[in-house]
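Office hours follow-up: a student asked to see two folded examples consecutively, so here they are.
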Amino acid sequence: MWLCMVYNETDTSVDFRLCQDFGLILSVFSIIYLLVCFPLGLCYNVLLVVVNLSNKVSMTMPDVYFVNMAIAGLVLNLVAPVELLSSTFTRWHVWEYNNEVYITLIILFNISSLVIMYSTTLLSLDYYIERALPRTYMSSVYNTKHVCGFIWGGAVLTSFSSLLFYVCNHISTKMVECSKMQNKEAADAIMMFIGYVVPAVAVLYAFVLILRIRKESTPLDQDSARLDPSIHRLLLASVCVQFVLWTPYYMTLLVHTVAGAPGYISNVHYLPTYYFLRCVSKLLAFSSSFAMPLMYRQMNKNFSKKLQRLLRRLHCRDQSCPNERSTVQQVVT
């Protein structure tokens, strides 16, 4: 295990045994995730995207955000096996990746995390707008699609701003420009502030506004029925789950930013515990890629109807189904 390399192979100290135990636990967690969570997340994310995109007419504003998060979840599904089957997470590793692959994985992981966090944040804000101003089109499906496009663009730009620090931290020090930027703590600080602090403050602000408007009865409340009542429960559950799963990862970034590699945590006595917690936190972050579509599947009442409509459409592709055609026409009208 890579985190046990600081000890001698013949070392029988308590720290070495603890390191071995952490490595075994982490290996078991990684295998369980790959056997159970990974296929479930992959299937449900694909299902969520396909079902909603095949029923674009009936999509609502929350559906657009959940499709956006599902696409980001698919990106995490691509990153997870590469990392979890390496020596970083398991004793029985399949491969070792070089610095180029490492940088690519960081880019994809950071982009996905930013898209997920900001989609959750803007979902909260748009839900408040929908409740407060139900007759406006500020939170319409059309506008939400453009907002999701900006989310991906902003995530890419933000990831590349911290990418410079990661790249310069892994290439030769012969380059004078990069030798001055070999600071991974700066990259973690950027991701910590933009990827967690800003969304957390925005979500807290949105929840305060939502709670305030729920207490105040207004004549416009009857118009807010345009959104399914279950959306409120789905919103609360999705925000809570996302922040529960991603908070440990961002806390490890905060620790690394404050303490730094050459600081307190670099002591041999604390290395196994720190890296174990860091890997577990990243495993929890990967878990968001299957927790969100499962929750959406269970709590969205319209999803089952859309799925049945899609299955009937696939069944009737090579057959004449007048009932299905009439149903589709009714949905369009």
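And the second, which I mentioned at the end of office hours:
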Amino acid sequence: MTRVTMDTSSFSSFTPREPQTDRPPREPAPPTPFISFIKPQGQLWNYNRHKTHEDQPGNIPKAFLDAMSVREKVYVEEQGVALENEFDSDDHRSCHWVIYASVLTTIIPAILDPRSGRLVRPRVTRTTSLPIGTLRLVPFPHSAHPRNGGIYLNGLLTNVGDPVRPRSSETVQALQPQEIQGGNRRNSLYIRDFPTTFHNGQEPYVKLGRLAVLKEYRNKGIAGQLVRAAVTWMQTNYTIFNPSPSVLGFDRLGMDVTGQLPKWRGLFCIHAQEEAVKVWERYGFKVDEKMGKWWEEGIPHVGMWLRVPVGKGGHTVA
């Protein structure tokens, strides 16, 4: 950069002139968006899924309400998902990320002299934080993989799915409690499932979902920031969802089950909307051909997977 100086020795005095313009002063550049993290929230049990985020009980964390404001805009208003189906039973046990943008709002406009164009009174502004994107991470265990050709409403299978897919009697017995009766996934250490291209049917995995960015902020790298934040957090906290023998009471029974308890080993899954596949591919996810395609709230979905190293170091999402 070239440094420029002015020799003022020949000036006895110097008074800068007001800019001759009919435009108000230039706005400062908005700060970089920031991300808020929300740990699993037990108080979400009294969230009323039949009402919008604006009409919820006062003990619901504001950051979660901000997440729901984005999800309502994207999924309910844009895509036609029923409001009562947007919030589900996984929300209270999930981690959530919300990304905010600083928005400059004019409270009192500037006043200019109509003859000279000089600024008489500068405008008054206020900066507010606007939630513009969100993502959630659901820990294991999960319900069974969706059926190929299945039609799901509010998480429930409404048809029989693909009658051609072969399933052993053992697999059908394992799937039935989760798919038809709601299942006991939160009380089970393992959920036996049918093997897919990237999942053996038993390995614990975490599931990303509800990725939503407001329309006017898309194609600006917002989704990538959310995905990177979730992946990096999970890599750093890779044991956080692993069950503890002491919590389960095995130590009091004198049982050594350390080698038998499920452990997260870096596997992520998403149920991606078919039109968003290329977005997720940018972050390293791959389509699971054996999972086929199914419909959630009338929208076609496919399964995608990503495996990352865990422990020190870390994985960088492109």
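Two things to take away from it. The first strand starts at residue 34 and ends at 38. The helical segments are 62-78, 83-86, 169-179, 222-236, 245-248, 277-282.
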